[in-house]
Design a protein that fits this description.
The protein folds into 2 domains: 5-119 and 302-318, Nucleotidyltransferase, domain 5 (2-Layer Sandwich); 129-295, ATPase, nucleotide binding domain (Nucleotidyltransferase, domain 5). The longest helix has 26 residues, at 235-260. It contains 11 helices and 10 strands. It is globular, with a radius of gyration of 20 Å. The protein has a 5-stranded mixed beta sheet with strand order 3-2-1-4-5, sandwiched between helices. A 5-stranded mixed beta sheet has the order 8-7-6-9-10, sandwiched between helices. A hairpin with a 4-residue loop joins strand 6 and strand 7 (142-147). By secondary structure, the protein is of the alpha/beta class. The relative contact order is 0.19. The chain has helices at 36-40, 47-69, 88-105, 114-120, 164-174, 181-189, 213-228, 235-260, 276-285, 298-301, 306-318; strands at 5-10, 15-22, 26-34, 78-84, 109-113, 132-137, 142-147, 154-158, 265-269, 292-294. Helix 4 (114-120) packs across helix 11 (306-318) and helix 8 (235-260) runs parallel beside helix 9. Helices cover 43% and strands 18% of the residues. Bound molecules: 5'-O-[(R)-(carboxyoxy)(hydroxy)phosphoryl]adenosine (KG4) and zinc ion (ZN). Zinc ion binds at residues 114, 118, 138, 270-271, 303. It catalyses: L-threonylcarbamoyladenylate + adenosine(37) in tRNA = N(6)-L-threonylcarbamoyladenosine(37) in tRNA + AMP + H(+).
Length: 334
């Protein structure tokens, strides 16, 4: 039987990425050029700098991808690209590249939602079992998504203010930790103690929504008050207390939703899925084996193009192509 190869491109934020995926589940090549070093001194992603880096890096990333795969563009069956959401100027680089390649080589073009990509990162590791619940936690998203079949996403809960990763990055900034703050807080948290009693935002009973802005303010106020009184708080304990609050709410709401919707499979997706505290707590909570839990390897948690190729396979199999009017859409709906 003939194999299907999808070339995927992802440029929604600060990683220039390309990948080639075989039959929707196998990584043949996966290249990520990170721009983190360029954004670090600004304490966050600068959109204009991100776009320019994508333009500079794109052809090299593609060349490296084809070298890794030992394939030519002629052997590719479809070209997939992140259509949104994300930074519009950054997305445009990927979309323009994908369109140009698809047009000049007469290949089908498939636009992919970035979050569908994060979810499908898990399918590169394990086949989905439906109904499935996805906890999506990234720099821009915090959502619980129910899937009854491939390609169908029902948002059952979402953040009402900051995304989990955003809260990590903002708290890290007030602690003078480098960008991105998530991994830094994660590292410190493992050395500290949850002794500062930060709030847990459960919201209404039975709500699967999240809120992290109150927690963020509590951390900032605690730091500020201690500073005024001349007390020096241990940054390890601040990190541990903050992380304990985030993780407890994420894990409990995920567990409750999994029970309510009687899902067979829970998957975790997005950059914050790399968090060691979250990974450990989820494994403990779901250790009864009744519900299968999958967490992708670290490299597939943060932005990459392999996940975009995996998600695109679902549309490819259904014969769904995106037409030439496709454009970067910073606020694309799932
Ligand atoms: O999915 P991602 O790479 O990009 C977006 O689509 O947003 O996620 C990036 C986010 C950042 O906020 C970063 O701080 C967070 O994921 N992150 C982490 C960890 N690694 C990355 N947050 C907590 N713990 C980590 N280990
Ligand atoms: Zn992402």
């Amino acid at each position: 039987e003939k194999n299907t190869y999808i070339l995927a491109i992802e440029t929604s934020c600060d990683e220039t990425a390309a990948a080639i995926i075989k039959n929707g589940t196998e990584i043949v090549a996966n290249v990520v050029a990170s721009q983190i070093e360029s954004h670090k001194r600004f304490g966050g992603v600068v959109p204009e700098i991100a776009s320019r880096h994508h333009v500079e890096q794109m052809t090299y990333v593609l060349e490296e991808t084809f070298n890794q795969a030992e394939l030519t563009l002629e052997e590719i069956d479809a070209i997939a690209v992140t259509e949104g959401p994300g930074l519009v100027g950054a997305l445009l680089v990927g979309v323009s590249t994908a369109k140009a390649l698809a047009f000049t080589h007469n290949k089908p073009l498939i636009g992919v939602h970035h979050i569908a990509g994060h979810i499908y990162a898990n399918r590169l590791v394990e086949e989905f079992q439906f109904p499935l619940l996805a906890l999506v936690v990234s720099g821009g998203h915090t959502e619980l998504i129910l899937m009854k079949e491939h390609g169908h996403f029902e948002v059952i809960g979402e953040t009402r203010d900051d995304a989990a990763g955003e809260a990590y990055d903002k708290v890290a900034r007030t602690m003078d930790l480098p960008y991105p703050g998530g991994p830094e807080i994660d590292r410190l948290a493992q050395l500290g103690e949850d002794n500062l009693n930060f709030p847990r935002a459960w919201l209404e009973e039975d709500s699967f929504d999240f809120s992290f802005s109150g927690l963020k303010s509590a951390v900032i106020n605690t730091l500020h008050n201690a500073n005024q009184k001349g007390i020096e708080l241990d940054r390890k304990d601040i990190a541990a207390s903050f992380q304990a609050s985030v993780v407890e709410v994420l894990v409990e709401k995920t567990y409750k939703a999994a029970e309510k919707y009687q899902v067979k499979h829970v998957i975790v997706a997005g950059g914050v899925a790399a968090n060691q505290g979250l990974r450990t707590a989820l494994k403990e909570r779901f250790n009864d084996q009744l519900i299968k839990l999958s967490i992708p390897p670290l490299a597939l948690c943060t932005d990459n193009a392999a996940m975009i190729g995996a998600a695109a396979m679902i549309d490819y199999e259904k014969g769904l192509n995106t037409d030439w009017s496709m454009n970067a859409n910073p606020a694309l709906d799932l």
